[in-house]
Amino acid sequence: MNQPVMTIAGSDPSGGAGIQADLKTFTTLGVYGAAVITALTAQNTQGVFGSIVVDPAFIALQIQRVLEDIPIRFIKTGMLANAEVITTVADNLPQDTFLVCDPVMYAKSGYPLLEKEAITTLKEELISRARVLTPNYPELAELLGDVFIPENAEESGKRLFQAYPNLQALVVKGGHRSPVGNQVEDILLWREGTTIHTKKVYHPYIKTQNTHGTGCTLASAITAYLARHENLENALVKAIDYVAFLIQKTQQETYGKGHGPLPH
Ligand code: PLP
């Protein structure tokens, strides 16, 4: 039997990102998903129009009551809004949690999904516990304290491994970058003992504005494949392939007037 998984993230009522994208991904990939909501957003494919953060004590209650009933090892985090929420989540993760952390900072429209002052707390309390991290290039720069977006993701990734001894794998998402030729390049790094392996994964560049929720979907797909007992390298590659497959499918299936969701 596949293991159950949990997402701890924000709600996107338009169904493209956040908790909704996570649950769709879990279900499509055949994994049972629990979902703890950290914030409500009011958004559609055209932008985010507001957000309300759930009381941290109530976030703690959600995590505790679910986990005492359904033991879950694979947990994915997304939008965490502020430092208090991050501390609450970190304090309530069981010791043996396998944490897949999507270090969500901004929506594609530029709306902040994490207070800027909370980045230090995110690094110290959550990323320090994460086994898998899925930053895009701007998030990678932010996590390393770099002013410029990194040119060499492999070098930057290795610096993250040095800073976070618990970290086992990193996917640097190429979606924000210009395609290499007509290919999008994602860079995977994973650690086995003292060896750091790197692998570049390419997919055809598809000109579409329907990429809302791709980050949430990737991190959830990694979590789901791990719960399906895939090894780390396979989980990362299969999750990237899953997102690429959905981006290609958006050419036939489009919702909304803005950045449309992935059709799972
Ligand atoms: N809204 C919520 C609630 C999210 O958790 C996320 C996750 O990253 C997003 C929006 C961002 O989606 P996008 O980057 O596609 O705008």
UniProtKB/TrEMBL annotation:
Gene Ontology MF terms in the entry: ATP binding; hydroxymethylpyrimidine kinase activity; phosphomethylpyrimidine kinase activity
UniProt-listed Gene3D superfamilies: 3.40.1190.20
CDD domains reported in the protein's UniProt record: HMPP_kinase (cd01169)
UniProt keyword terms in alphabetical order: ATP-binding, Kinase, Nucleotide-binding, Transferase
Enzyme class: transferase
InterPro entries, per database record: HMP/HMP-P_kinase_dom (IPR004399), PM/HMP-P_kinase-1 (IPR013749), Ribokinase-like (IPR029056)
GO biological process, one term: thiamine biosynthetic process
Pathway participation: Cofactor biosynthesis; thiamine diphosphate biosynthesis
Pfam family name, one: Phos_pyr_kin
Keyword Ribosomal protein among UniProt keywords: no
Enzyme Commission code(s) on record: 2.7.1.49
A cellular-component GO term for this protein: cytosol
Occurrences of domain Pyridoxamine kinase/Phosphomethylpyrimidine kinase (ranges): 12-262
Protein name, as recorded: hydroxymethylpyrimidine kinase
Native source organism of the sequence: Thermospira aquatica
